[in-house]
Amino acid sequence: MRQAGLIVYKAHQAVLPWIKPGVSTHELDDIIESAIRKMSATPSFKNYNGFPAASCISINEEVIHGIPSKKKILKEGDLVSIDIGANYKGYHGDSAWSYGCGKVSEETRRLLEGTKASLFEGLKQAKAGNRLSDISHAIQMYAEGLGFSVVREFVGHGIGKNLHEDPAIPNYGLPGRGVILRPGMTIAIEPMINFGRKEVRVLADGWTTITADGSLSAHFEHTVLITETGCDIFTTQGKEE
Q1: pLDDT confidence band for 238 (50 / 70 / 90)
Q2: Looking at the 3D structure of the chain, how many domains does it have?
């Protein structure tokens, strides 16, 4: 799983220079899939419940599960959320990161920084002895403290031999509830935060989920291992970027 997480991180790094105006989300997906396969892994998302691509690429008001397309061309100022999963020798890594395309608005910058920070607030609570909802509560309090809203319909999850496993990890809720976190657990923590209202809706393609009010949304996610003293982030290379 540690190697699967590193592969996901490297796939994000491979696509990062290509997040620029004029590039299609289909091109980005090709770069991601090629990077994953070159590292002897397979894309976790491709054909998962019928999803047609190697990654989910969601732009602006799209919250999650955006389907890469040759018709979706990035523009200056876009908020681009990229969710990548990799299967390495039967184990999965999963990480989403949101990026600005070129120069972004102050609104976009605030949402990007706030959503990323809410992930790390949640990670602070991801340690043995805490309850699952301690993570959820920390994310909600931080994001809502900035005036943003937390998506309810989609949540983080356990991860291992399967891409999605129990337990479900909401990004909201009261502290001190749910299962006790124990060393050896592997989970994916992923706040999805909206600039406007929390409500979302799924488009006719059955995948792409957008904010109901058309406001911006950002998505950050890490796969982590619970340890005695905290958590070990698998989907990074020793630095948070």
Answers
A1: low
A2: 1
Whole-structure pTM value: 0.96
* Rounded percentage of the chain residues whose pLDDT exceeds 90: 97
The reply to whether 137 falls in a domain is yes
How far from each other are the two terminal CA atoms of the chain, in whole angstroms?
Answer: 20
Q: Is the Cα torsion angle 73, 77, 78, 79 positive or negative in sign? A: positive
241 in any annotated domain = no
Convert the pLDDT of each residue in 187-226 to its tens digit: 999 999 999 999 999 999 999 999 999 999 999 999 999 9
Distance CA 115, CA 219 (A): 7
Q: Strands across the sheet with 192-194, in order?
A: 149-150, 192-194, 217-219
Containing structural domain, residue 217: 2-233
Are 47 and 91 in contact by the 8 Å Cβ rule? The answer is no
pLDDT tens-place string over residues 32-76: 999 999 999 999 999 999 999 999 999 999 999 999 999 999 999
- Strands (DSSP E) contained in 17-134 are 42-43, 55-59, 62-64, 79-88, 91-100
How far apart are alpha carbons 213 and 205 in whole angstroms? 19
**DSSP state letter for 73:** B
Q: Is residue 64 within 8 Å of residue 90, measured between CB atoms?
A: no
Per the domain annotation, does 239 fall within a domain? no
- 67 Cβ neighbours under 8 A, 6+ residues apart: 51, 52, 53, 56, 57, 205, 207, 208
Is residue 240 included in any domain, yes or no? no
One-letter amino acid at 150 equals: V
**CATH number (domain holding residue 227):** 3.90.230.10
